[in-house]
Amino acid sequence: MTAFTFNEIGRIHSPYKEKFAVPRQPGLVEDGGGELHLLPPYNQAEAVRGLEAFSHLWVMFIFHQTMEGGWRPTVRPPRLGGNARVGVFATRSTFRPNPLGMSLVELKGIRCQGKEVILQLGSLDLVDGTPVVDIKPYLPFAESQPLAVAGFAQEAPEAEMPVTFSPRAESQLAENLARYPHLRRFITQVLGQDPRPAYRKGEELERDYAVHLLEFNVKWRVIADQNQVISLDPN
């Protein structure tokens, strides 16, 4: 069996500071963009020459936070309620024989400043600090297949839960309005996807959760069929 070694070419800077609550696909959270910072020796303007002519990129990355868990021949996709098992190769599970992932993201711009080469990206499904091993331009004529069949994930998931904000959270939103004008929309779209583990969905008891987003520790409470943001305190 042949072994391969990959070099990290860059690292993701993302508003998602932990894997909990990261959207399951890019494009689901409007304000969840980030950056890809290229690392030496790949941080050369020549390496991205011509890339600005493409609107979207395939980002190949490492599932660095779950790779220690190894792989599993079958997994339980959240889109199937977390109960039905299918083969790992029929899913995009992080628990794979090789911890490689790929994500299609919008390229919003390129900044070359001295020794820095930074790709500005649109809506991400990647945790902060994700190591990237390659990028490739997206080719619509070859890779857009309108008649393709996608098994149990033919359509994008709809936001599942309404999101409300407590008086304290409303005050904190107002305090951060100048720096984060779209913070309410960002949190609403993240929590609206109901990031809880699939096996917890449907629970009727009140339960509190927390996640690090941007520079905030966002705490919310699940009450019946809605999420109420309790607070968003600085980390």
From TrEMBL:
Keywords: Methyltransferase, RNA-binding, S-adenosyl-L-methionine, Transferase, tRNA processing
Pfam families registered for this protein in UniProt: TrmO_C (PF18389), TrmO_N (PF01980)
Record keyword Ubl conjugation present: no
GO molecular function: RNA binding; tRNA (L-threonylcarbamoyladenosine(37)-C2) methyltransferase activity
Reactions it catalyzes: N(6)-L-threonylcarbamoyladenosine(37) in tRNA + S-adenosyl-L-methionine = N(6)-methyl,N(6)-L-threonylcarbamoyladenosine(37) in tRNA + S-adenosyl-L-homocysteine + H(+)
Subunit and interaction comment: Homodimer.
Tagged with keyword Transferase: yes
Domain TsaA-like: 6-147
Name this protein carries in UniProt: tRNA (adenine(37)-N6)-methyltransferase
GO BP annotations, alphabetical order: methylation; tRNA processing
Family according to the record: Belongs to the tRNA methyltransferase O family.
